[in-house]
From TrEMBL:
GO molecular function: (3S)-3-hydroxyacyl-CoA dehydrogenase (NAD+) activity; 3-hydroxybutyryl-CoA epimerase activity; delta(3)-delta(2)-enoyl-CoA isomerase activity; enoyl-CoA hydratase activity; NAD+ binding
Statement: the UniProt record of this protein carries the keyword Nucleotide-binding: no
Keyword entries, A-Z: Fatty acid metabolism, Isomerase, Lipid metabolism, Lyase, Multifunctional enzyme, NAD, Oxidoreductase, Peroxisome
Name used for this protein in its record: 3-hydroxyacyl-CoA dehydrogenase
Lineage: Eukaryota, Viridiplantae, Chlorophyta, Pseudoscourfieldiophyceae, Pseudoscourfieldiales
Biological processes annotated in GO: fatty acid beta-oxidation
Domain 3-hydroxyacyl-CoA dehydrogenase NAD binding: 312-489
Pathway: Lipid metabolism; fatty acid beta-oxidation
GO cellular component, one term: peroxisome
Predominant cellular place of this UniProt entry's protein: other
Subcellular localization, as worded in the UniProt entry: Peroxisome
Subunit and partners: Monomer.
InterPro entries hit by this protein: 3-OHacyl-CoA_DH_CS, 3-OHacyl-CoA_DH_NAD-bd, 3HC_DH_C, 6-PGluconate_DH-like_C_sf, ClpP/crotonase-like_dom_sf, Enoyl-CoA_hydra/iso, NAD(P)-bd_dom_sf
Length: 741
């Protein structure tokens, strides 16, 4: 059924009950809003109606807000036309002839909360939540929320709720003035709403119109001071280039100083502007794409049903194994943890206990839940209990021989239907399973550290992996509250592969004489949680050497083999691990630039590049000159566009099911800033042609010294740029041309 509203009238009492209906969360689709306007007009004009209750259809929501896929249509100019919602809310809900009450069960968020605030009173069940989280999508409230919320809860609290996007639970909402009555049980909701509606209809209880309230706004001078405090908070917490939080405050301020009509007008202007910003397009893209990663063509639409993973056996109780075990027991899955000896086993079990205990200490878990989780964990130094396992996750050392031996043993000790998975970060999944006859049930389960916290689960399928096994692994990922992203088998899989140029480009810049700390600062300002050199310290310089070597070997046409990481390792600068890397670390892991401590290493690595390019020394000198005068934007392009280039290859090769899967994987693993959408979305917002041209200019600059290949725009990027299609749509848009790539 199309999203709409429907109503009934209780002829005895004269109370009409209007339902917002668009299951499961009654999202405010344009057709629902049109139906809402029509039915409100009918009910307000109906002489038999004394009061109107507005409520949500179904058990879970009043309304969770505006229908988000509609934003995408609005942003591309193809959205359905909306009725004038603000005018309708003011005329028919807030100030119509009959009083209105919102009866709230579940969430009243965003547009849903704005509809509720326009009614004359709100009754909510104790478990309900109300809030305006629009800013997380790069927009601002657009149905009067910036005006009504400050008038109901005060400017300070309203700003806090909008800037943090955090909703209030019903009881706090009542204490703050956002809700009038809280009822304990769902069954009490409509009777309480009816009572209040009739009391307003017969005049025994006054009607409140939020937009006309002034008591919580204060005089203009006080409002200005309050908003100024909000601006300071925004300046401190908002990345540069993100304008919508301060524009939201502009709308609040206009309303508070010039009156609600001016405020509503300002809100509409700001909304129309911010909805077209790249920030909003990116955040909406991330929001919607995250839900799609677990839909894989040919697998999740194949009619198969996932088998539950009730017991998981884990090999290795080190950093990763213990984190994975924690995630499993936390989500009701039994775990058998295997280690090489009793001492290591105890260490692994203790790490799981410590992971869980840290939640108890922070008050996020009860002691009972902790005990319950620990009771699901069994340790072994043999394969005892592996016959129970529905899935094995191998997290032993990154050693091909060891993994092959383990998998051959697993084939002997596990059931024939048990999924055999590996957490390898670099080894080809086919190679891991080479010594078995079980390749159809072998799959990669690539977690990110810390495994019980990081949201991404990169699932690596091979050409031989059974659909059922892929489906079960996706369901397992969801069961342990991860976001599963299914990728193909290749060097580095998806995430590590697209980010190898991130570190390599930084090493090249350092070898050319750019200050490493400037690089990290610029990339952090771009929005990454840390720059590439700080990240190298965190991951460990030895790991960097190992993984970097794999890329140089497998992608020799487009890698830069710097000596920097090798020289850091040889100089015992291993990163956070030994508190000495590009930064020095104190006992609390606080980083300070190592500066002079690494000067000689940086110089030697730069000299190695000089020596390799000895035949083209003059050209290298010219390049160094140019690079040293790079602006911050040049540095960002130099480091991030090779990442985009490799991302394009991953999309072209079909390593990911959808281009957006790669964006989500990048956001959830590397902390790629969601407000930039991920490498593919960022490139598409800029335009494939612009990305191609910039990469081509770097390639031209470096070709004389033999390093142009690192930047050479890949065929797919070039094809998309030529055809004027996005990288996200290129595979389908280029059709047969793609087959030749
Ligand atoms: N550390 C990371 O950030 C990270 C991220 C993703 C994937 N990985 C991968 O996960 C795997 C484990 O990495 P880690 O960082 O946890 O290593 P780790 O050294 O902390 O732990 C490995 C554990 O495996 C145990 N082990 C070795 N052989 C075993 C066997 N036959 N049976 C049972 N236990 C055995 C070791 O005793 C050790 O405790 C590696 O393949 C690694 O590449 C690591």
């Amino acid at each position: 059924m199309a999203p709409s509203t429907y109503y009934s009238i209780d002829s005895q009492s004269g109370v009409a009950l209007l339902y917002l209906s668009n299951p499961p969360v009654n999202a405010l689709h344009p057709s629902l809003l049109s139906s809402f306007a029509e039915n409100m007009a009918l009910l307000q004009a109906d002489a038999s109606v004394k009061a109107i209750i507005i409520t949500g259809d179904g058990p879970s929501a009043f309304s969770a807000g505006f229908d988000i896929p509609q934003f995408v249509k609005t942003q591309s100019g193809s959205g359905a036309k909306l009725p004038d919602v603000n005018a309708m809310l003011t005329a028919l809900v807030e100030n119509g002839p009959k009083p209105t009450v919102a009866a709230i069960k579940g969430s009243a968020l965003g547009g849903g909360c704005e509809v509720a605030m326009a009614t004359n009173a709100r009754v909510a069940t104790a478990k309900s939540v109300l809030g305006l989280p629009e800013l997380q999508l790069g927009i601002i409230p657009g149905f009067g929320g910036t005006q009504r919320l400050p008038r109901l809860v005060g400017i300070q609290k309203a700003m806090e709720m909008m800037l943090t996007s955090k909703p209030l639970k019903a009881v706090e909402a009542k204490n703050r003035g956002l809700v009038d009555v809280v009822v304990a049980n769902d069954d009490d909701l409509l009777p309480a709403a009816k009572q209040l509606a009739l009391a307003m209809a017969n005049g025994t209880t006054p009607r409140t119109c939020a937009l006309s309230k002034t008591d919580k706004i204060g005089p203009p001078m006080a409002a200005r001071a309050m908003v100024q405090l909000g601006r300071m908070q925004v300046a401190k917490n908002t990345p540069p280039g993100m304008k919508h939080p301060s524009m939201c405050l502009d709308a609040i301020l206009v309303g508070a100083t010039e009156g609600p009509e001016a405020g509503i007008k300002k809100e509409a202007e700001v909304f129309a502007e911010v909805v077209q910003h790249d920030v909003s397009k990116s955040l909406v893209h991330v929001f919607l794409s995250q839900r799609l990663t677990s839909k894989i063509r040919g697998v999740t639409d194949s009619g198969l049903r996932p088998r539950p993973m009730k017991c998981v056996a884990i090999i290795g109780g080190g950093l990763m194994g213990s984190g994975i075990a924690t995630a499993c027991v936390l989500n009701g899955i039994d775990v058998v943890l295997k280690e090489v000896n009793q001492k290591f086993l105890e260490g692994g079990m203790q790490r799981v206990a410590a992971n869980l205990m840290s939640s108890v200490k922070k008050g996020r878990m009860t002691k009972e839940k902790y005990e319950q989780c620990m009771s699901r964990l069994k340790g072994t130094i043999t394969y005892e209990g592996f016959d129970r396992a529905d899935m094995v996750i191998e997290a032993a050392l990154e050693d091909i021989g060891l993994k092959q031996k383990i998998f051959a043993e697993l084939e002997q000790v596990c059931r024939k239907d048990c999924i055999l998975s590996t957490n390898t970060s670099t080894i080809d999944i086919n190679v891991v399973g080479a010594k078995t006859n079980a390749i159809n049930r072998i799959i990669g389960n690539h977690f990110f550290s810390p495994a019980h916290i990081m949201k991404l689960l990169e699932i690596i399928k091979t050409d031989s992996t059974d659909k059922q096994v892929i489906l079960d692994t996706i369901a397992f990922g969801k069961a342990i509250k991860k976001v599963p992203v299914v990728v193909g088998n290749c060097t580095g899989f998806a995430v590590n592969r697209v980010f190898f140029p991130y570190t390599m480009a930084a090493c090249l810049l350092v070898d050319l004489g750019v200050d490493p700390y400037r690089i990290d600062k610029v990339i952090k300002a771009f929005g990454m949680p840390m720059g590439p050199l700080r990240l190298a310290d965190l991951v460990g310089i030895e790991v960097g050497v190992h993984v970097g070597g794999q890329f140089v070997q497998n992608f020799s046409d487009r890698t830069y083999a710097s000596e920097l990481m090798h020289r850091m390792r040889d100089g015992d600068r291993l990163g956070e691990k030994n508190k000495k890397g590009f930064y020095n670390y104190d006992a609390k892991r606080r980083a300070t630039p190592a500066g002079r401590d690494v000067e000689a290493i940086l110089a030697a690595s730069g000299a190695a590049l000089d020596a390799k390019a000895a035949n083209t020394a003059a050209q290298l000198r010219q390049i160094k000159q140019k690079v040293r005068s790079f602006s911050d934007k040049d540095i960002v392009d130099f480091i991030m566009l090779p990442v985009v280039n490799e991302s394009s290859r991953v999309v072209a090769e079909g390593i990911v099911d959808k281009a957006s899967d790669l964006d989500i994987a990048s956001v959830l693993s590397m902390g790629f800033p969601p407000y930039r959408g991920g490498p593919i979305k960022m490139a598409d917002l800029r335009g494939a042609a612009s990305v191609r041209d910039r990469l081509a200019s770097f390639a031209a600059m470096f070709t004389p010294v033999g390093l142009g290949g690192f930047f050479e725009p890949c065929d797919y990027l070039q094809s998309c740029a030529r055809a004027g299609v996005t990288l996200a749509d290129g595979r389908s848009a280029l059709g047969t041309q793609m087959a030749r790539l």
